Amino acid sequence: MKIKNILAAIAASAVAVSAMAVSASALADNQKAYGFGGAQVNWDVDLDGDEDNDVIGGVNGDQWIGTLDSATGSGTIKIPCTAGDTVEIICQSWDSITDKVIFTATVDGTSYDCYYNQPVSITVPDSVVSTLEAQIQWAVTDGASDGTFNDWCGNYVIVTTGGASAAADTGTADTGAADTGAADTTTSPTTGNVPAAVMVSVMAVAGTAAVISRKRK
């Protein structure tokens, strides 16, 4: 084979791999995104980096699930889901503070510590028919620009129907996550660790190397 044909084949392979990576990073067909936070969050958000907005209109859109109190940073979010689904709570407030808990999310008496860009995973309990409620309470009170809650703080939730993304089930991400969970260290959903299947779809573009989340009784 001539050298230019070899180079062309290599280039074609690189393009194919690149295209596969982009498609693997998009939200799967069985995933839905929602927003919550301050009353001034009125912009669209592309959570998975595929240049297609996943949450439209912010507080003015139909994917908004809760506005927090402007003075206390507290409130209830109502997440549309059913038993067995996986809920990912994603803190996107105060990107300058990465080593402190930004807010806590309490579900059925368990409080989950939410750090910037470190999704917290919750498996929806059997008692839930259509809505999971989570109590949000702002926690950080220091750091850059004080870090307190304001009406421009936006955060997000991704719901995966059935608890596993379609991409992970079919293996299209080609990461081994469907069989081995190689995308991240994952234990029982109740620990607050991030499921590998959702990390493939949500965090691949961001290039997050490790995700650690904690819960408190």
Brief description of this entry?
This protein is an alpha+beta fold.
Q: Main traits of this protein?
A:
217 residues; alpha+beta; five-stranded mixed beta sheet; 10 strands; disordered N terminus
Biggest sheet strand order reads 2-1-9-4-7
Q: What's the rounded overall pLDDT mean?
A: 74
Roughly how many Å apart are the termini? 65 Å
Share of β-strand residues: 25-35%
Counting H and I runs of at least 4 residues, what is the number of helices? 4
- The general outline is globular
Q: Can you offer a commentary on this structure?
A:
The protein is α+β, with helices and mostly antiparallel strands and 217 residues long. The chain is built from four helices and ten strands. A hairpin with a 2-residue loop joins strand 5 and strand 6.
Describe the secondary structure blueprint for this structure:
Elements: H1 3-25, E1 31-37, E2 64-67, E3 74-80, E4 86-90, E5 103-107, E6 110-114, E7 120-123, E8 131-138, E9 154-160, H2 166-170, H3 177-180, H4 196-203, E10 214-216
Parallel strand pairs: 1-2
Antiparallel strand pairs: 1-9, 3-8, 4-7, 4-9, 5-6, 5-8, 6-10
